[in-house]
Amino acid sequence: MKAFEAPGRTVAPTTDDLFLGGALTVLQPRNGYRAGTDAVLLASILTPETLGLGAVLDVGAGVGVIGLCVARRCPSARAVLLERDPVLAALARDNVQRNELTGRVSVVETDLARATAALEAAEIKSESFPVVLANPPYHDDRRSTLAESPLKAVSHQMPDDLLDVWARFMCRMAAPGGRVAMIHKADALSRILETFEGRFGSIAVLPIHARAGEPAIRVIVEGIKGSRAPMSIRPGLVLHTPEQAFVPEIEAIFRHGAPLPPQYRG
Description:
This protein is an alpha/beta fold. The protein has one domain: 3-Layer(aba) Sandwich (Rossmann fold), CATH 3.40.50. Helices cover 28% and strands 30% of the residues. It has 9 helices and 13 strands. Strands 5, 6, 7, 8, 9, 10, 11, 12 and 13 form a 9-stranded mixed β-sheet that branches. The chain is globular and about 50 Å long. The termini are far apart. About 7% of the residues have low confidence.
């Protein structure tokens, strides 16, 4: 097992996980942050045809699964992975190299709330990305028990008011008319809509259900910078059959790198 070290913190061992049916191999901390279903689903809203030669910014990229999935599925796409934690950023860089994507994927290590200097050093301009994606931390650290692992706590717990910081940064980096998308817990929908208001229009909400007939567990919220078009709610996406297997269209996303079916994406 490979150990990754950062000032004051070491993460070891890692696991070597397969994504997109083995088309992507990703090192992750065994006991820390674990990317999975949410990251792959968010990446699947894009297709090679709709993205073309465009660049994608993966905000709070962790080990890089979202941006790497986009780059693997869309052969002409470029991706920038922005991650503040030095351990996760180190893993992301290694994942870019081991998947032979160094020509199209780069990692910027910085806190999005203080990113200006790092972005300038990387020659990345504001309002330059046609697509900005984010999978923010899901838990409010004022209302939940802190994770035992410091890395897991950083990755999965965030004060609720920081969601506005994420939305502001996404707006800053999206090009005029650019597309942003965020996946989050379903109960955060009202807060997401509040932070998107005044920044994005043509907002589309995709509810995600573990099984048919159950409440949504996640939402993907998309918006267009500068648009004034009204909000829409897409048909609910169901992940599992009653027997706990993935439904066929979800199996195709996870095992074969397919995009979301058209009715679920813009």
